Amino acid sequence: MNTPLWVSELAAAFWEQAGEEEPFPRDLRRGVVLGLPLSVVTIPALSVGGVRRWLARNGVNLVIAAPERSLRACLVARFGRGIVFLDAADPPDEQRFSLAHEAAHYLRDYWKPRQEAVKGLGPGVLEVFDGRRVPSPAEQVHSLLARIPVEAHLHLMERSPEGFASDCRVRYAEAQADRLAFELLAPAEHVLAGSPERDHLVEVLCRVYGLPRAPAQQYASTLLPEGEQSPWLLRLGLRR
């Protein structure tokens, strides 16, 4: 199982910013606060309305164009900084994965596009990302030629009444955030170095790396897809 290059690069950038990698199971809070311009806020019974009220109480003038619904976590980012909201009622493993997921959104969907745009167009382009102005014709042309998106960041909170991602763009962003979150909490190379058996992999991901069971099952199917053998068995030349 080859880890996508962008996943490895962003995970490495996170730990470089954080200063050092954490032991397992990773909490990530220290790394997030020290390595990224993010704050972490926990709110009981987290919801869209709860996020709106917290922002209003703290003088943050920001419109969240999403209908009221309960949330497990939420990222609000603006002007290069952000806040990760977590549901205080969630157990530690769920909060751990939620924080990793929202940090992954920040890195992939917010921080990386800004860094690439600045590299190609200069720091003035951040005014476009922050919604202060529209891109100039020259910025639009360079954006198209270099395939660097230059636009104010859009939210990814669209959901169906049942709570599912409402379009392919949101579903793709959520899947990519999950993939990076997995790498931050349980790096594929480290997990597979232990030569886990498929039947035990979910338990290893929960017990050693602190993943909740549902995400652990999802990650296990990525690390060892159906029909693929354990790296340990392959090294021995054994077949199931």
Q: Could you characterize what this model shows?
A:
This protein has helices spanning 5-18, 29-35, 48-57, 92-121, 126-129, 137-146, 168-185, 188-193, 198-207, 213-223, 231-236, and strands at residues 38-43, 73-78, 81-87. The protein is mainly α and 240 residues long. The chain has one domain (5-225). Strand 2 (73-78) and strand 3 (81-87) form a beta hairpin. Helix 1 packs across helix 7. It holds the Pfam family Peptidase_M78.
| Main sheet specs | 3 strands, mixed
Rg calculated over all Cα atoms? 19 Å
Number of helices: 11
Q: What number of domains?
A: 1
Give the structural class.
mainly alpha
Percent helix range: 40-55%
Q: How many runs of DSSP E, i.e. beta strands? A: 3
Protein name: IrrE N-terminal-like domain-containing protein
Organism: Calidithermus terrae
Domain IrrE N-terminal-like: 78-110
